[in-house]
Amino acid sequence: MKNLLLAITALLLPFMASAQFTLSGTVTDSQTGSALPGATVSITKTQTIIADATGHYQFSNLKAGYYNLRVSFIGYGTVNREVNLEANTNTDIVLTSGAIVTEDVNVTSTRASSKSPTAFTNLSRKDVQKNNLGQDLPMLLGQTVSAVTTSDAGAGIGYTGIRIRGSDGTRINVTVNGVPLNDSESQGSYFVDLPDFASSIDNIQVQRGIGTSTNGAGAFGASINIQTTTRRDSAYVELNNSAGSYGTVKNTVQLGTGLLGGHFSFDGRLSRINSDGYIDRAFSKLKSYFLSGAYYGKTSIIRLNVFSGQEQTYQAWNGVNADSMAAGNRTYNELGYIKSSGTYYKNQTDNYTQNHYQLLYDQQLGSKLSFNGALHYTKGYGYYEEYKNADSLKNYNIVPVTIGGTTFAATDLVRRLWLNNQFYGLTYNFKYQPINALNIILGGAYNQYKGAHYNNIEWTQQSTNIPPDYEYSRDNAKKNDFNTFMRAEWQAGKFLLYGDLQYRHIYYSFLGFDRNLNNVQQAVTLNFFNPKAGVTYEFDEHNNVYASFAVGNHEPNRDDYTNSTPDSRPKSENLKDFEVGYRTSQGIFTGGINGFYMLYKNQLVLTGSLNDVGAAIRTNIKDSYREGIELDGRLRITKQLSWAANAAFSSNKVKNFKRFLYSYDTGAYVETDYKKTDIAFSPSVVAGSEISFRPIKNGEIALISKYVSRQYLDNTSNTNAPGVVSAGTSSFAQNRYLNSYFINNVRLNYNFSIKSVKNIGITLLVNNILSKKYEANGATYPDIEGGQVVNYNYFYPQAPRNFLASLNLKF
């Protein structure tokens, strides 16, 4: 019997030796229990991974045996643990704060923690980089909950946008290391000004709803909190080159010194992206760089970031008109058309450069108190050049000229619309933790913006006796934005109590109309109080429920002020946000469900009416709301197969809406009243899915899907006045909405290494693999002609099947 057992054991030894197992676990903070996304986990010199957004790590296809598990994270002591791997093993690691202060204090002051009673999604650098083949940052965030993205050029490069819960970029607060990115006047964030910025991002948190107090423009639908490059312990060089459809090429070089002498580090990036775009004459020529240097002390960090972007784009921001769409031409771009010659102006371009400077300072003031602050300066300058056909000279304060007995009151001309602006200020945060169960943050910012808007004429077809670069208008604006907030989280047994109070003061000086319709410099002052409160109950360390209530206020934008008088000027918007949800983390499954009710007061929308200066500006609507349910989860079905999915179901309504249409039959405006209709660009269903299969070691196949239901172009739910029908026969002309769409992308990725290269990554991304024809954005300008409503609709078609391929080399 003994000899038989020895023989069987000998026969099984090769199979036992070749068996492959999985080592996984979660990395958390010893004091708060919160996950530590971005922690470095290694088992050998060549097998190193980064913990994901939930702090989870996993090594697959390991042979049985002993492994030295090493886990490190900036600001925490390193943990080494020996693991005897004889079966699939789960090893959780708890890290304790170390002697060196952590850099993430820069952003955690305006972020939700793992237990905060609000809805959010964390994305690690790995999450961002897996699709970073050249498309703009909004496109890389398209799979987050309730997000809808669009691209003017149709291929995701150039001017792109993102809506979250139906709220556009002017209502989404964006910060970079706690510094506001939103433009102070338009309040939008233009990622085209920072090409390939995603390559310099360490992590992102996307909050939905009002969220936590933050700096800059009010978070009226969501906030995007970005942290850029942080310390890497070892030196590196990375080359990333991509190419794909529509002449798209991306070249990126990154390098870093690692930690020098235990105190210094330097990182840099240089990028170039070119694309012709899917839409005709919608090219993008983009350049950028990112430089960062840091000093690490035992209780302090000083980091200087300098980054810049330069963009030139042939604009496609008018979209494609309905007639062209109906005729089958989905790529028609009318901008820059010269009627006299039937050609297109080659320099119908947007040209803008933006330089950013950030000096970040973190200081541990004791075992219970820490401080972080930032000084920042942003300089932007550039122009949009356009060709105008037979434009009236009186629009440019030019007296009509007489030549050869003929008086010319209009002429073809080329003009440049300039913006030369600067934004600077400081942010500050004190974090006080007197006991483990209590965390208090006092923070805020003071920022100042100065913007010079001026417009020049470069050329006229007819002689007009004007000097070169004739300046026909100028508007100098100034905006001061101050806010301060105090937030506290108190762990009382299984309850986490959350409170957040913010005060915000705004002073805005601009050139606008007074009550006598004189265009004069004037100013407005606004004061906002934004309280927030919530509670989280923990069933155990893996499950919790939460509820919160928050108030937000949002100021009108530049056009609302400059195109109105004090009598017609719109009021600021107010939002009351109710959130309730459940989160779970069960090892192979993490996910949650969140319900929300967002009640608006005085939301600003276009109604079609004109104000007392004859401008069609946005008008306050007293009552509107959004209510819905959001679900998201990630399931590891097997060690090779995982599925991440999310879905949002919502009802978005405006009450007692009045729409005004100009009638060319009577020369008057026709009013139509609606009791309850859908808010524009607010789909009732938004869903995303990513199925990932790893058939071989370091190889992945992913199917990425997105569904967006119908979106209306205005607030009428596509309903016309009684007895009035739409003119035109095509659906593009009749309907004032975007059809629902379901698109699928496929991503193939394989990583391997050779002796002289740490990692060689090959990625192929095929977008819209089924070539679905769809439009992600649009606009409508209806009027009444001959007793009929005529819809002048414009759409932004997105590209059919297209691809991007990349080769990534890490040294």
From TrEMBL:
Alphabetical keyword list: Cell outer membrane, Ion transport, Iron, Iron transport, Membrane, Signal, TonB box, Transmembrane, Transmembrane beta strand, Transport
GO cellular component, one term: cell outer membrane
Domain TonB-dependent receptor-like beta-barrel: 303-769
Main localisation: membrane
Signal peptide: 1-19
Gene Ontology molecular function terms on file: siderophore uptake transmembrane transporter activity
Annotated membrane topology: Multi-pass membrane protein
Sequence intervals crossing the membrane: none
Location(s) in or outside the cell: Cell outer membrane
TonB-dependent receptor plug domain residues: 114-222
Matches recorded under InterPro entries: Beta-barrel_TonB, Beta-barrel_TonB_sf, CarboxyPept-like_regulatory, Plug_dom, Plug_dom_sf, TonB-dep_rcpt-like, TonB_rcpt_CS
Family: Belongs to the TonB-dependent receptor family.
Protein name as catalogued: TonB-dependent receptor plug domain-containing protein
Organism of provenance: Mucilaginibacter polytrichastri
